[in-house]
Amino acid sequence: MQAIATAPCASPSALPRNLAAVMGGALAPCAATLVLPDDPRPAIGCADLLEPALLGETIARFGAAFPGGDRRAVASLWSQWYFGALMPPVVAAALLLGRDLPVALAGMHVILTPDATPAAMRIPHEGATCAGDDAVTRLEPLVWEHLAPAVDGLAACARLAPRVLWSNAASLYAWIVAEIAHDPSVPAAVVAGAEAVMLRHHWPDGRRNPLHAPPRTAGERRRRVCCLRYLLPQLARCSTCPLTADVI
C-alpha cells in the first residue's frame, strides 16, 4: 500500500502542551478534552460505561434535558459529545504529532459532567512514537479498538442503527480534517493524507471504512445518514441534515 504522507513522528514530550501547540482555530478548545492520569476528576472506565445498565442510566440522565425526546435521538446526540471529547485530540496527536496513544476502549476512562455529558477522555499514559507513516495506520487503533466497540455497545443499548453513530463519527472526522486544512502551518501532504482516509471505501484489510465521507459536491459535505436530531424538539435541525436536500 502506498504511504499517505503525515507529519513526522514527534519525540516523547508533554502531551497536553504539544496538543495545545498544534490544535489551533476551532480545534483549540478540543486539546483539553484528552487528559492524563493526574487529572483529579472522577472518571468511569469506557468499557464499564458500555455495560447496558450503566449506559442506559447514563443516556437517561443525559436525556433529562430533552423531555419527550426520542431515546434513539438522545443516544445519537450523546454519542456526538462522546466522539467530540475523544476524536479531535486523538486524531491531532496521530497525524500532527506522530503519537500512537493508548486509545483502546478497555484502557480509557471518560469524565462526565453532572448531567452525564462526556467532557473529557483520560488515557493511561502519553503513548509512543507512531510506527506507521500513513494516516490509515495511525488511525487504526482509534477506529477499531475504541470507536467500533463503542458504536456496537451504544447501538445495542439504544436500539439504534450503527450507521447513525458511524455517520456521527465520520462527520466529525471530516470537520477535524477541514480545520486541520485551514491551518497554514500544516504541510499540504499531511492534509492530503488525512483527506485520503475519507475517500477510501474500505480499510486495507477489506473491512468497510466507517470514516468514508466523500463530498456531495465540490467543497461541500453533507451527511448521508440523519443523526435524528430533528426528533428532539428543543434543538434546531443541523446544517448538514440530509433530510433538507438530495443526497448522493
List keywords for this structure.
248 residues, alpha+beta, two-stranded antiparallel ribbon, 6 strands, globular
Describe the SSE topology.
Layout: H1 15-22, E1 34-35, E2 44-45, H2 46-49, H3 52-63, H4 71-97, E3 99-100, E4 109-112, E5 118-122, E6 128-129, H5 135-158, H6 162-182, H7 188-199
Parallel strand pairs: 1-5
Antiparallel strand pairs: 2-4, 3-6, 4-5
Helix pairs in contact: 1-4, 3-4, 4-5, 4-6, 5-6, 6-7
The major beta sheet can be summarized as: 4 strands, mixed
| Oligomer description | single chain
Distance between the termini: 28 Å
Tell me the number of helical segments per DSSP (H or I, 4 or more residues long). 7
Rg computed from alpha carbons, rounded to a whole number of angstroms: 17 Å
Class of secondary structure makeup: alpha+beta
* Anisotropy-based shape: globular
DSSP strand (E) fraction?
A: 5-15%
Integer average pLDDT: 85
The ordered string of helix (H) and strand (E) elements is: HEEHHHEEEEHHH
Low-confidence stretches: 1-12
InterPro entries: Fe_iron_reduct, IucA/IucC-like_C
Domain Aerobactin siderophore biosynthesis IucA/IucC-like C-terminal: 76-223
Protein name: Siderophore-iron reductase FhuF
Pfam families: FhuF
Describe the fold and architecture:
Residues 76-223 form the Aerobactin siderophore biosynthesis IucA/IucC-like C-terminal domain. This protein is α+β, with helices and mostly antiparallel strands and 248 residues long. It has seven helices and six strands, in the order H-E-E-H-H-H-E-E-E-E-H-H-H. The protein has helices spanning 15-22, 46-49, 52-63, 71-97, 135-158, 162-182, 188-199; strands at 34-35, 44-45, 99-100, 109-112, 118-122, 128-129. The strands form two sheets. The chain has a four-stranded mixed β-sheet with strand order 1-5-4-2. A two-stranded antiparallel ribbon has the order 3-6. Helix 3 crosses helix 4, helix 4 (71-97) runs antiparallel to helix 5 (135-158) and helix 6 (162-182) runs antiparallel to helix 7 (188-199). The longest helix is centred in the middle third of the chain and has 27 residues, at 71-97. The protein is globular. 39% of the residues are buried. Residues 1-12 have low confidence and may be disordered.
